[in-house]
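Re: export button greyed out
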Amino acid sequence: MENSYIPNSAVINEVRNLTYDTKLFKLQFKDKNIQKNFDYKPGQFVEIGVFGYGEAPISITSSPSTKDYFELCIKNMGNVTNKLHQMKKNDMVYVRGPYGNSFPFDEVKNKDILFVAGGIGLAPLRSLINEMLAHRNEFGKIQALYGARTPEDMIFTDELEEWSKRIKVLTTVDKGDFRWKGNVGVVGTLLTNIKAETENAVAFVCGPPIMIKFVIQDIVKLGFRDENIITTLERKMQCGIGKCGHCNIGGKYVCTDGPVFTYKQIKELPEALQ
Ligand SMILES: Cc1cc2nc3c(=O)[nH]c(=O)nc-3n(C[C@H](O)[C@H](O)[C@H](O)COP(=O)(O)OP(=O)(O)OC[C@H]3O[C@@H](n4cnc5c(N)ncnc54)[C@H](O)[C@@H]3O)c2cc1C
Ligand code: FES
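Workaround output, generated via the alternate export path:
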């Protein structure tokens, strides 16, 4: 019988500093066949492991169109992520997955799309944004709002600039510095600067629970329907495959029923955004 806990070896091809505490890892499975057949969808995650340190669930941030490698954007938070941050090109890690459900893609074709991301929440959305841009003419108006704590905390700044040539991109920081000439305020304040035909629009919101909670309230006020507001939940995980119960929330497992949920579903899970 196949053991779902056995990971595959993957080589770190490149490590890029995105901020003082967040790095982008470009990875490739050692076995070329596994890499070739590694099919995932935006919103899914992997369990990345370091021998002797453990595993951590991390969203896949690359778009599925990149077949030769996949990317993980990892913030240094504790045991495993700290060890990963010490690793370099050609070091080996262990990867299981992809796991979890995914963002709707075909279902939202021809609709207007609004992305709202806070901090590291841009990582899972980056996969979807790049996939939608690869199929640009299949979607309506696309707008992306991104907020970080300070200018130093902003990730994927080069890509935000690239995207802004093709879609409307607005950025903000909670606290500026002497170089920052842009908007200052929480990401929800940017919602006053956008026009959205909410009847035929879908909003994707990712970030810390407190940000998701307030942004969703604002988006509902704009007129988006609950089932058209999509977000992701984070819970401390162990198995990632619905066996250990660690990510249980109101009868759902975030690892298998999620991590992607609609606001309509979240309303049934009162502790979801605490
Ligand atoms: C589906 C999913 C996708 C994720 N995607 C990303 C991603 O793309 N990039 C990224 O940097 N991080 C992501 N995370 C968060 C990441 O999994 C944790 O930061 C990581 O597991 C911390 O592991 P560690 O061993 O380094 O830290 P630990 O030593 O285990 O913990 C450090 C601290 O973080 C807390 N913590 C750990 N995991 C979580 C969690 N999931 N929610 C709340 N608190 C937690 C612990 O209680 C502790 O206070 C994701 C989490 C989930 C569930
Ligand atoms: S992490 Fe084990 S059941 Fe979800």
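Residues 45, 54, 56-59, 73-75, 77-82, 120, 123, 234-237, 259 surround flavin-adenine dinucleotide (ligand 1) (CB under 6 Å). The button fix ships in the next patch.
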